[in-house]
């Protein structure tokens, strides 16, 4: 994953097939910070008060800004698009599919996610949260306690003492994701 080193986009990364849930909000932030959000916010409709030329130029600026952060492996899918809103919706349709198969695939990845001793806890939590974000984008919102339990179940046997003590000390028998994450970081 290539990341930018320029100051205005220091944390931006190129869109690839597996990082849309991270790329999208970062791209939205860039567009808002650069006042390039109008074509998306207005669903591609030209506002009154803008000439056709102004609207066309703004659209091309937005398209250029978005495509600048699209990996070459994805670029050919959007290379011919010159309308910012159509480009945005095309990327959305490619990566935010809400089919049962996609949901099942992400859930499978979530329940099969396993922490490996010695790996960074931060990386594991990032992988976990990325999958949760994908499900949320698919309109599958998981209960906080369920997320906490799935995260605990991703831990190896060497963490059993922590898992048992945490489970036994949960207020009113209910864990929260924040409690589990806080304990994992310590």
Any overview of this molecule?
This is Retrovirus-related Pol polyprotein from transposon TNT 1-94. It holds the Pfam family Retrotran_gag_2. The protein has 186 residues and is mainly α. The chain contains ten helices and no strands. The protein folds into two domains: 89 residues, no CATH class; 86 residues, no CATH class. The two termini are 29 Å apart. Helix 3 runs parallel beside helix 5, helix 6 packs antiparallel against helix 7 and helix 8 runs parallel beside helix 10. The chain is elongated and about 65 Å long.
Compose a concise summary of this entry.
Helices cover about 60% and strands about 0% of the residues. It has about 190 residues and is mainly alpha-helical.
Round the mean pLDDT to the nearest integer and report it. 89
Indicate the overall shape: elongated
Report the portion of residues in β strands: under 5%
Query: Main sheet, how many strands, which sense, barrel?
Result: none
DSSP E strands, number: 0
What is the chain-wise order of helices and strands?
HHHHHHHHHH
Structural class comes to mainly alpha
Helical proportion, percent range = 55-70%
